[in-house]
């Protein structure tokens, strides 16, 4: 009953007011950041206790958590891509990210692995290529009025197909590509690093810059204001003089560009440009959408914060890491699916509940 | 000028519907007080009154959409309880609202029977449904072939006829029509009247709500006039003139004079010449800096569209606009704003508010160009500063600009949307229904803001269907009727005179003559 | 005009045309493709080739019936691939490892499919959460369930041919695959139900305007619940046909991507993702088009992955045609 569900409203009372009133339940339910931090504490604390009690297959300690961050890089980046698109409203969603990752990864493989371009131009070319794929989605959605779900389903198919055919289904794993694996290794932080576990390099060269850029775009630029405006109320945005097609198409281009960068990340991680990189397993769109929704992004548009999405990704990654060593055999990956499903359904039901419970009063 | 209350018509026989002593208040404010309304079998009973006079509350009570505090409703002399739309339908009271609630993808017959399908052996009995709908359609003047057409293929007028037919299939004996003519063209209105006469001939009683007083003389038998929540009485239409009804509606008060002197003429900032679109035609006007021109017209007269055309939000088919002497034809609000024209949209919730964003966001979202820093960033400090100063200037009641705009009352929310248009002082400010759904205090304040803007040299064009507002605030008042400018009045004219012009006292010949003269 | 002539004319045309423009175009496109493919490769129209294609059409076509109903109510179901997996592995395990009778296992599959569909239905109709989010979530949950049943192993030793529902000789009636005939019967029934029963028409009203439908007295929640339940049931049947396919081993990739294939078929068939419009006939034609393209691509000796590119293009073209028609209609008013 989608159209009965209003997006969550802005907090009617301030954080401080809830704090002062000791209204913990309200604080937890209406402030997504607070809720995610609380969940994170519970997850990390819980698994640490289990670990201390010797109930896990391996230690759930700082080193393990740090190593798990390698999975955080693509997940967070793609969740941010979804965030841009979902916040832009109009039923925004991008199912095609996985295919873009595959295809852009092949482009990266060609340019860097086969044609021997220097690394930086290759990365730029790959990101630009991703942006072009996003442009196709953006034009179809924003200028021609296609439903986002359908457009990105179609481009998912088309680009998946092209990425498989483009090199005869063969991965590209020439020497330069294999050497890129160095970019995935874990490094010691400068200055204070000796006291901390090693952190995967990708966190610094891919994840943090992307987080910063998307945060700047959404929170600090005039484009961010326009994006939230069209996502909140596209009719009012038009009356306020905002170009709806241009602003919305840009969100899809951004999503494509981020997917392009993720392509570089995955090529580094696999040390190979695989034509099925982004569509194998459960694909990449589903976990990304899950993290975005868990992070408080309203599927109806206009609401979403980078901090929430980042925390949600961290929660999912560390929860998955814990599940992996808590379950015997290779059941771990299966229980990760279970956890992801429960979290998604739970947070969606919670969004609906908080809307009804707290949106009316104030 | 005192209203001459005419003798109430003699009420013979048992009324089909009687509402006696009905009172309803919303939060301590009386919407209607001791209303008396008696509908006889087979009559067309017009219900008129200014906006807010209580007409819609009264019919909502009769149709079960609204409860009431005290009073009694009788049908055919016996007391009845109407608590829901279903109750009303069971009593064969059907209401046709302005916006038809129809399913575009379904056929007319399906729409009519949705939720109460006629079946034969569990499956829909199309033949029977179409048969019944076809008969009803014939009554409202549509061919029976429409029964199998999808509703989305029909024009607005046809959809309205379908809505009426839908009510008839329910065997309505009381049919309430809420401003049925507002969106119809003249010939469509003629069809509607034919339909209504067919119904009354079959004994159906019709309550007809309209702002267009001239219509009443063509269709209504009697008229009940409401003012400030009170029913003034029921009269035979034949004994009244448009002027008299208008006078009764506005109460004969001379509300306009209070206030200020008409301002002196200055240079023309915005002019329109024979501007034509799908909703209006041949509109000509001049707007000078430092003056308020009000376009006054009934709902559906085209005022809102004319205003929107000045802001690039309504496509113009022919005619010209000039801004400061230069040709001006904006195709988007962005273009209009770049040239110093700003507009407050008519529908606050749909076209104005970004409901779950902050007040500051809502104020600044229209002026992002101004708040740019380093090419792409928003200057947050200036954003806060602008928001704070606009909140102060417009006296928006809120403790914090960072709060969600949905925490504000209607009046304050309207001020926020107005503030958005004033961040950069526009040369031309267009306001559509600036005080609709706004409490009295905020209304006064908004009018004061408009005055101040004029004093600072802005030209203000207001499109409104609120006569009181038009009277109070206009330097010049242009009455729009049937989509074109029909008459012009200066500040200080009588309300009844304006209302009469807008709702049609004059004959068509006089109209045309006047329109020709008034084309400035 | 006399009453009798009125009635006579109404009988001629009680509803908008039974076959929509989109469906006629689809039939034309499919026919054209068949002719071209037959010219390029005469083997394409060989009975075996056609029989095989029709058999493979059956599961997608059956699932597309449910998907059409769901999308008509302005919903969506991403989880059908996971339901298909759960049902398939259940049947496979029961017959291969527990020695159950095939039909008994199919019965269990139907019950499980309906139950999983009901979970979707309850969450969507009573939880008041967008269907896409809920089914994204339940897709994970159902997949977890399926993988647990697989227990990290493939299911081996399935009998090579499971007769009636299979693609082989034993699964044909008058030369047509029985699975295909079942699909045709179900489509015909669904088509008739959606067109001629009040309950069927209510799906369309809900997709058009849920609130107004509720006001008109339609039991909206119950209808939405039923749409997902029936879809689950149909997926349970599709799983039976999949298992009857004759491979001896069932691996964990079963069902993968079927949700997107089914949505693609439905959308190509002219069902509007915004709800309120669509037909099962179109959906099956859409499925046939997708099937034709994938058979055609392989028979032409092209890389089989290329068929997805065509599916993507068909979606864009089909929805685009719909958008243009919609715009023309609006411009006319």
Give an overview of the whole structure.
The complex is a heterotrimer of chains A (362), B (520) and C (333). Helices cover 69% and strands 1% of the residues of chain A. Chain A has 362 residues and is mostly helical. Chain A has one domain: ABC transporter involved in vitamin B12 uptake, BtuC (Orthogonal Bundle), CATH 1.10.3470. With 520 residues, chain B is α/β, with parallel strands linked by helices. Chain B has three domains: 17-250, 3-Layer(aba) Sandwich (Rossmann fold); 256-340 and 427-520, 3-Layer(aba) Sandwich (Rossmann fold), CATH 3.40.50.300; 343-423, no CATH class. Chain B has 18 helices and 24 strands. In chain B, the strands form six sheets. Chain B has a six-stranded mixed beta sheet, with helices on both faces. Chain B has a six-stranded mixed beta sheet with strand order 18-21-22-15-23-24, with helices on both faces. In chain B, helix 4 (126-139) packs across helix 5 and helix 8 (242-250) packs across helix 17 (495-503). The longest helix of chain B is centred in the middle third of the chain and has 16 residues, at 186-201. Mean pLDDT of chain B is 84; it is low at 1-7 and 254-259. Chain C has a two-stranded antiparallel sheet with strand order 1-2. Chain C has a single domain, classed as Orthogonal Bundle (ABC transporter involved in vitamin B12 uptake, BtuC). Chain C is built from 13 helices and two strands, in the order ααααααββααααααα. By secondary structure, chain C is an all-alpha fold.
What would you say about this model in short?
The complex is a heterotrimer of chains A (362), B (520) and C (333). Chain A is built from 15 helices and two strands.
Layout of strands and helices, then pairs:
The complex is a heterotrimer of chains A (362), B (520) and C (333).
Chain A (H helix, E strand, L loop, with lengths): L14 H6 L3 H7 L1 H21 L9 H26 L9 H18 L4 H25 L4 H18 L9 H5 L6 E2 L11 E2 H20 L1 H11 L1 H6 L4 H27 L14 H10 L11 H21 L4 H28 L4
Helix pairs in contact in A: 2-3, 3-14, 4-9, 4-12, 4-13, 4-14, 5-6, 5-7, 5-12, 6-7, 6-12, 9-10, 10-12, 13-14, 13-15, 14-15
Chain B lengths: L16 E10 L2 E11 L4 E6 L5 H8 L7 E6 L2 E2 L5 H6 L2 E4 L11 H6 L5 E2 L2 E2 L1 H14 L16 H14 L4 E5 L7 H16 L3 E5 L3 H7 L2 E6 L2 E7 L5 H9 L17 E9 L6 E6 L3 E5 L6 H7 L8 E6 L2 E2 L5 H6 L2 E4 L3 H5 L6 H6 L7 E2 L3 E2 L1 H14 L16 H13 L5 E5 L7 H16 L3 E6 L2 H7 L2 E6 L2 E7 L4 H9 L4 H11 L2
Parallel strand pairs in B: 3-10, 3-11, 6-9, 9-10, 15-22, 15-23, 18-21, 21-22
Antiparallel strand pairs in B: 1-2, 1-4, 4-5, 7-8, 11-12, 13-14, 13-16, 16-17, 19-20, 23-24
Chain C lengths: L2 H10 L8 H20 L6 H26 L7 H17 L5 H26 L3 H20 L21 E2 L2 E2 H19 L1 H11 L1 H6 L4 H24 L14 H11 L11 H20 L6 H27 L1
Antiparallel strand pairs in C: 1-2
Helix pairs in contact in C: 2-12, 3-7, 3-8, 3-10, 3-11, 3-12, 4-5, 4-6, 4-10, 5-6, 5-10, 7-8, 8-10, 11-12, 11-13, 12-13
């Amino acid at each position: 009953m989608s159209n009965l569900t209003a997006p969550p409203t802005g907090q009617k009372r301030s954080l401080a007011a809830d704090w002062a009133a000791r209204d913990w339940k309200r604080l937890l339910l209406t402030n997504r950041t607070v809720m995610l931090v609380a969940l994170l504490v519970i997850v990390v604390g819980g698994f640490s206790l289990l670990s201390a009690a010797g109930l896990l297959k391996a230690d759930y300690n700082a080193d393990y958590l740090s190593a798990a961050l390698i999975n955080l890089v693509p997940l967070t980046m793609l969740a941010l891509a979804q965030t841009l698109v979902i916040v832009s409203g109009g039923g925004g969603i991008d199912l095609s990210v996985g295919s873009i990752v595959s295809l852009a990864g092949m482009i990266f493989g060609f340019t860097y692995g086969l044609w021997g371009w220097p690394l930086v131009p290759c990365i730029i070319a790959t990101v630009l290529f991703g942006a072009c794929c996003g442009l196709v989605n953006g034009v179809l959605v924003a200028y021609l009025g296609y439903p986002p779900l359908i457009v990105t389903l179609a481009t998912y198919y088309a680009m998946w197909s092209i990425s498989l055919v483009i090199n005869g289904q063969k991965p590209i794993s020439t020497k330069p590509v294999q050497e890129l694996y160095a970019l995935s290794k874990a490094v010691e932080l400068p200055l204070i690093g000796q006291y901390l576990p090693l952190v995967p390099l990708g966190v610094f060269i891919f994840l943090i810059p992307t987080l910063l850029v998307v945060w700047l775009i959404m929170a600090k630029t005039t484009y961010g204001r326009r994006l939230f405006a069209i996502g909140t109320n596209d009719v009012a945005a038009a009356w306020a003089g905002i170009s709806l097609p241009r602003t919305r198409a840009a969100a899809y281009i951004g999503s494509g560009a981020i997917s392009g960068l993720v392509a570089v990340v995955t090529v580094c991680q696999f040390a190979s440009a695989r034509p099925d990189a982004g569509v194998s397993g459960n694909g990449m769109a589903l976990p990304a959408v899950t993290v975005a929704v868990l992070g408080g992004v309203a599927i109806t548009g206009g609401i979403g914060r980078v901090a929430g999405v980042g925390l949600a990704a961290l929660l999912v990654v560390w929860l998955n890491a814990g599940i992996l060593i808590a379950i015997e055999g290779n059941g771990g990956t299966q229980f990760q699916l279970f956890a992801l499903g429960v979290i998604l359904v739970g947070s969606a039901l919670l969004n609906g509940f908080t809307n009804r419970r707290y949106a009316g009063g104030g | 000028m005192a209203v001459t209350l005419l003798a109430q018509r003699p009420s013979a026989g048992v009324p089909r519907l009687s509402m006696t002593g009905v009172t309803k208040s919303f939060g301590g404010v009386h919407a209607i007080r001791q209303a008396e309304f008696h509908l006889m079998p087979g009559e067309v009973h017009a219900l008129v009154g200014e906006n807010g006079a209580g007409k819609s509350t009264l019919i909502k009570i009769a149709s079960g959409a609204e409860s009431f505090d005290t009073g009694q409703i009788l049908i055919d002399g016996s007391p009845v309880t109407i608590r829901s739309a279903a109750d009303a339908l069971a009593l064969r009271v059907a209401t046709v609202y302005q916006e038809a609630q129809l399913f575009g993808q379904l056929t007319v017959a399906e729409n009519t029977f949705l939720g109460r399908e006629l079946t034969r052996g569990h499956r829909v009995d199309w033949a029977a449904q179409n048969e019944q709908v076809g008969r009803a359609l014939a009554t409202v003047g549509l061919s029976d072939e429409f029964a199998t057409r999808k509703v989305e293929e029909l024009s607005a007028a046809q959809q309205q006829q379908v809505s009426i037919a839908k009510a008839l299939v329910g065997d309505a004996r009381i049919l309430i029509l809420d401003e049925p003519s507002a969106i119809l063209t003249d010939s469509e209105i003629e069809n509607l009247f034919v339909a209504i006469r067919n119904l009354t001939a079959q004994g159906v009683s019709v309550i007809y709500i309209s702002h267009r007083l001239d219509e009443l003389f063509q269709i209504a038998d009697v008229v009940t006039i409401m003012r400030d929540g009170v029913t003034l009485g029921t009269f035979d239409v034949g004994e009244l003139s448009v002027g008299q009804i208008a006078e009764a509606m506005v109460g004969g008060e001379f509300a306009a004079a209070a206030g200020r002197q008409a301002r002196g003429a200055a240079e023309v900032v915005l002019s329109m010449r024979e501007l034509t679109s799908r909703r209006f035609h041949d509109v000509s006007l001049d707007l000078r800096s430092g003056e308020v021109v009000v376009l006054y017209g009934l709902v559906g007269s085209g005022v809102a569209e004319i205003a929107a055309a000045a802001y690039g939000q309504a496509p113009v088919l022919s005619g010209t606009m000039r801004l400061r002497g230069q040709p001006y034809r904006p195709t988007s609000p962005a273009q209009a704003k770049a040239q110093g024209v700003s507009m407050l949209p008519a529908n606050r919730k749909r076209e104005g508010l970004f409901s779950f964003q902050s007040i500051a966001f809502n104020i600044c979202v229209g002026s992002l160009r101004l708040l740019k820093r380093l090419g792409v960033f928003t200057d947050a400090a200036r954003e806060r500063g602008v928001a704070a100063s606009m909140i102060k200037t417009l006296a928006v009641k809120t403790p914090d600009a960072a709060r969600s705009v949905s925490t504000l009352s209607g009046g304050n929310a309207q001020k926020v949307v107005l503030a958005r248009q004033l961040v950069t002082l526009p040369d031309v400010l267009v306001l559509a229904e600036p005080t609709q759904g706004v409490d009295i205090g905020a209304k006064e304040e908004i009018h004061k803001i408009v005055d101040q803007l004029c004093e600072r040299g802005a030209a203000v064009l207001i499109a409104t269907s609120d006569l009181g507002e038009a009277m109070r605030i206009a330097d010049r008042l242009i009455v729009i009727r049937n989509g074109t400018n029909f008459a012009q009045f200066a500040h200080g004219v009588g309300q009844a005179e304006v209302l009469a012009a807008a709702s049609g006292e004059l004959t068509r010949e006089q109209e045309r003559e006047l329109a020709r003269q008034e084309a400035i | 005009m006399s009453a009798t002539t009125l009635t006579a004319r109404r009988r001629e045309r009680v509803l908008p045309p039974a076959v929509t423009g989109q469906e006629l175009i689809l039939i034309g496109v499919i026919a054209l493709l068949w002719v071209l493919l037959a010219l390029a490769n005469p083997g394409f129209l060989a009975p075996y080739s056609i029989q095989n294609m029709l058999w493979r059409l059956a599961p997608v076509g059956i699932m597309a019936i449910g998907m059409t109903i769901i999308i008509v109510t302005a919903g969506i179901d991403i989880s059908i691939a996971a339901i298909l997996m759960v049902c398939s592995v259940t049947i496979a395990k029961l017959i291969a490892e527990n020695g159950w009778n095939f039909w008994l296992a199919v019965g269990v599959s139907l019950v499980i499919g309906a139950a999983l569909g009901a979970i979707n239905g309850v969450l969507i109709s009573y939880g008041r959460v967008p269907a896409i989010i809920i089914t994204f979530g339940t897709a994970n949950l159902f997949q977890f369930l399926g993988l647990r049943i697989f227990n990290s192993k493939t299911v081996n030793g399935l009998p090579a041919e499971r007769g009636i529902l299979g693609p082989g000789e034993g699964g044909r009636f008058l030369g047509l695959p029985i699975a295909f005939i079942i699909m045709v019967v179900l489509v015909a029934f669904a088509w008739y139900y959606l067109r001629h029963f009040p309950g069927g028409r209510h799906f369309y009203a809900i997709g058009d305007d849920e609130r107004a439908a509720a006001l008109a007295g339609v039991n909206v929640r119950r209808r939405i619940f039923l749409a997902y339940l029936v879809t689950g049931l149909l997926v349970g049947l599709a799983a039976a046909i999949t298992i009857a396919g004759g491979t001896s081993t069932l691996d964990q990739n079963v069902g993968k991507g079927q949700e997107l294939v089914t949505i693609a078929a439905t959308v190509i068939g002219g069902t509007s993702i915004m709800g309120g419009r669509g037909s099962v006939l179109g959906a099956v034609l859409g499925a046939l088009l997708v099937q034709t393209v994938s058979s055609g691509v392989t028979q032409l000796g092209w890389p089989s992955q290329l068929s997805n590119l065509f599916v993507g293009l068909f979606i864009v073209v089909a929805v685009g045609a719909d958008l243009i028609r919609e715009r023309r209609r609006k411009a006319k008013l």
